[in-house]
Fold this sequence. Notes:
A: 150 residues; alpha+beta; B: 126 residues; alpha/beta; Transcription Regulator spoIIAA; five-stranded mixed sheet; 40% helix; 29% strand
Amino acid sequence: MIRHTWSIASILGQEAALADDLLQRIAPVIDSQPRLEEIRTAVTEACLNAMEHGNRFDARKKVRVLLGVSDEAIVIRIGDEGEGCPLGDAAPLAADRAAIWKLDNPRGWGIGFIRSFSDRVRTGYDEHGFYVELHFLLPCKRVNGGCQGG
Amino acid sequence: MGVVRVDRTFHMSERRLPDGLILDLKGDLTREAEGPLLHDDHWQEVLMKPGFCLLLNFTEVSYINSAGIACLIRLTRAVASRSCHTFAYGLTPHYQKLFRMVGLTEHLMIYPDEISVLGRIEALSD
């Protein structure tokens, strides 16, 4: 069982360093570099949302990241100190594309990346505050012990 | 537990071509790239001639986030508005995928390396 916790300041760039460390920790259970890159993008975008929308880039406020790896899934919880903003049923990225391209500053891709690359996304509140939780299913490697899939 | 931040500040240098410009990008392509990419009009003056080509070299870029992608969209839109062409090379398969997802590939042609792009530009000018 892999478990780890990070707490980073709401300063741009911290999310990239965190993702480097996180990917090193999960690399033993994911033998696909493309999948690791997808997880990197989903996690960094969730951290950026937490810094910007949750903590308003207040460097004193922290973004908490909890990593848990079981036989079935990698679960990464990203929490901030804000009020919380459920992601809702965001439209698929392709549906948003034309609208975003018309903006002077065509931002807003992060949630689409998070939804595209995560197998499950849930939001909630824990003892620290609001969080977004990303689930990434693992290809089953055990042939004995309850997991027979591939 | 916190993290140690390695310096991955965005830097950009340029190389002139007879019919265009190569921008060698280095570091993380994030919101911090907005200034050099969009507000340094020194390089933009080079692209005033319709048909000129802008080549973006991503060989030394290992991280691009959504804000960086927004910068690239603004850049390619500006270049296309001048009837110039944008090419990219040195992108990992993951970032090629992100570029396709957001529609950048409709405005920016991706090639594996600089030689391939230069060959394409030469063919376009023939």
